């Protein structure tokens, strides 16, 4: 195989992941039961996890750049009358960014030298990107490290978020923010499998398309992979 760096899918001319055919839908897998999605159940699962294995941990490398540590916040907003119907807070990145532009993502970014740990990175980035204040956030654990094709070594930091949050978007980095029910993304009936071949390499990924009013939010790639890992933890 050539040592020439592979082209990121998002940089291919006219590439649109939404147009790549669906090879299969994982409807044969069970959904996570509602009683495992309550705040207390989520805290307990991270405090004393069962034996389980992550499914998505590393993408095919397609960027000729040094590895960099990063963290994302996986914010689970405690919606519902009894705060037992959590949603996942996600962002849509602006289209001019150098990496993962225009994609659906968790708040997060590269680790700074001043960050004490991955949680500090995730909280700082969430505040810088969407104005989420740490006082509304209760970190309950982390998911396995996920390495992107752009050589970011990402620690997903999972947190429960108070519904009273008030957000202020950084317009340079974030085009929009929205919430999707956790029950929706924890149901494999909504997990679509895709594959695309380019430069002799087959790349595979999941998507979790979500209809948000008049807008379809196409959750795919690294974000979908980390959500799938959360599914594997909660279903174990």
Descriptive terms for the model:
alpha+beta; globular; 236 residues; 17% helix; single chain
SSE topology sketch:
Elements: E1 22-25, H1 39-47, E2 68-77, E3 87-93, E4 104-105, E5 108-110, H2 118-130, E6 137-142, E7 146-147, E8 152-161, E9 174-181, H3 182-185, E10 192-198, E11 201-212, E12 215-220, H4 221-235
Parallel strand pairs: 2-8
Antiparallel strand pairs: 1-10, 2-3, 2-5, 3-4, 3-9, 6-8, 7-8, 10-11, 11-12
Structure report:
With 236 residues, the protein is an alpha+beta fold. It has a single domain (23-235), classed as Nucleoside Triphosphate Pyrophosphohydrolase. The protein contains 4 helices and 12 strands. The protein has helices at residues 39-47, 118-130, 182-185, 221-235, and strands at 22-25, 68-77, 87-93, 104-105, 108-110, 137-142, 146-147, 152-161, 174-181, 192-198, 201-212, 215-220. Strands 2, 3, 4, 5, 6, 7, 8 and 9 form an 8-stranded mixed beta sheet that branches. Strands 1-10-11-12 form a 4-stranded antiparallel beta sheet. Strand 7 (146-147) and strand 8 (152-161) form a beta hairpin. The chain is globular, with a radius of gyration of 17 Å.
Summarize the structure.
This protein is an alpha+beta fold and about 240 residues long. Helix content is about 15%, strand content about 35%.
Which value, in Å, is the CA radius of gyration?
17 Å
| Poorly predicted ranges | 96-101
Please tell me what the overall shape is: globular
CATH topology: Nucleoside Triphosphate Pyrophosphohydrolase
CATH superfamily: Nucleoside Triphosphate Pyrophosphohydrolase
Any idea of the CATH class?
Alpha Beta
